[in-house]
Amino acid sequence: MFALPVVPLIAGLQLAEPAHAAESQSDPSVSTAPPATTPQPDIRQIECVAKVIVHEAGNQMRRGQIAVAQVIRTRMQRLGVAQDACRVVHERGQFFNVDRFKPARDTALWRNAMAIATQTLKGEGEEIVPGALFFRTAARPFKGRIRVAQIDNHVFYR
């Protein structure tokens, strides 16, 4: 499995003000704020998406894992909750109970899921399933929906 450099992605999150922030405020050439054009996802939001990736697509190739994350992002945009992936993941009848799911966090699968979730929530990367709002296993077609793509054993729909 291809491993992404997870540390820089997660380290780039603004979870707390760095100790050197006060020093950099006096030096205008040093910026500690993230770029205004790309909102930094909250770690809780990243973990919600990563849990869905691991649970729903952990046995899929990377492209399929990205597609699952993109479905969540598209739903966020459609629901008007652009900063709240967890709200989408907690929608009744849509996903499993992510709060009870405790994946091992010391695995390559989890690190890759966190990297994919971060990249997707930042709006980065190739759009694999444009406009897809749902996915199902290929064995259970979704009647009445427009098929966007099939990746491994998941079919993605609008």
Structure description:
It is a single chain. This protein is mainly α. The chain has one domain (about 40-155). The chain contains six helices and three strands, in the order ααααααβββ. The protein has a three-stranded antiparallel sheet, covered by helices on one side. β2 and β3 form a beta hairpin. The longest helix is centred in the middle third of the chain and has 18 residues, at about 60-80. It is globular and about 35 Å long. Residues about 1-35 have low confidence and may be disordered.
Mean pLDDT: 79
- Total of domains: 1
The portion of residues assigned to helices is 40-55%
- Strand fraction band? 5-15%
What composes the largest sheet?
A: 3 strands, antiparallel
Tell me the number of strands.
3
How are helices and strands ordered from N to C? HHHHHHEEE
- For the record, give the distance between the C-alpha atoms at the N and C termini, rounded to a whole number: 29 Å
Radius of gyration: 17 Å
Give unreliable regions as ranges: 1-36
Structural class estimated from helices and strands: mainly alpha
What sort of overall outline do the alpha carbons produce when their principal axes are compared?
Answer: globular
| Spatial order of the strands forming the largest sheet | 1-3-2
Number of helices: 6
